[in-house]
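User: My advisor, Dr. K., asked me to get a structural model of this assembly before our group meeting. I'm new to this, so sorry if the format is off. These are the inputs:
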Amino acid sequence: MTAEDSVRVKINGKDRTVPEGLHVAGLLSLLQVTGPGVAVERNRSIVPKTNYESTPVEAGDEIEIVSFIGGG
Amino acid sequence: MRSRSSPSSVEAEDKMEKTKQSQDGPLLVGEHVIESRLIVGTGKYENYPTMKAAMEASGADMVTVAVRRIDLSAKGEENLLNWLPDGMTLLPNTAGCYNIEDALRVARLAREAAIGDLVKLEVIGDEKTLFPDNHQTLKAAEILLKEGFTVLPYCTDDPIVCRQLQEIGCHAVMPLAAPIGSGLGVRNPYNLRIILEQATVPVIVDAGVGTASDAAVAMELGCDAVLMNTAIAGAGEPVRMARAMRLAVEAGREAYLSGRIPMKLYATASSPISGRIGA
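Assistant: The format is fine. Below is the predicted structure of the whole assembly, which you can bring to the meeting.
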């Protein structure tokens, strides 16, 4: 991956370089995020599951990927 | 509106009987039907098998879960949801949020992740006590209610804030018994009684329960349910404590519905006075 075909984004508070042209669905698959109970926020907006394929991941994006853990 | 007081007059008995019947059924929170009046948390367990066994022993059908960033460096980590017994209703919390904005973000993420509208709203005001910030909780609840959430707010055992939360449309109120994880039990039963008397939505005691009798006390007061985590997960034998809590909640509920005898300073003989020998 060269500088031209990659973009810098922030995922869960950490800087990362990911391939250019990804959608959220592709990003999750790249990060091996699977399973029930996952939610994604892009630039402070929720990305509904139905929009994973149509929501692009662009340079400078701030993305949060969360799931459920034990809590009271 | 349900009557919480115990009418002493004979005329009120018919009405009370009807009220009891409606209270005998499952717990209704908004559109959600909850069979068990013991709601349990999923935190602090040593491992998932113990958690699952404790949930089964508790008889609970609603569980709280927290929302956190996925650890992207940890591969193949087990998913909590795969360890919950079938048929559980998820109640995601906003634990760890100290302001409205964070609580709203977490609630919205939870709704997307859970595909459900329930949220246990926590806006914490202080790290040491984990007491809720009632003022911010009210504001956050108002916004979430407008967005269609079923909101169960964690609040202090303050009758005024409980009334305000129900007035803005919260689907339950969840006053604390004592600080989260403290195990101190019901610290202010008199406040709870006032909260119960004015309640038009379920009152769920959330936080502070330490042992079975604490849960029974809350239920005997007339609370609609008890929510706990540490008391079970932190017990020497969590599965056994889960069973104890189930029995305590059921016992407390039955005792409340039965209508306890009044407390008196002096004795009343259980055996008849008449027919005693030598009398």
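One thing worth pointing out at the meeting: The two ends of chain A are 43 Å apart (CA to CA).

User: Perfect, thanks a lot.
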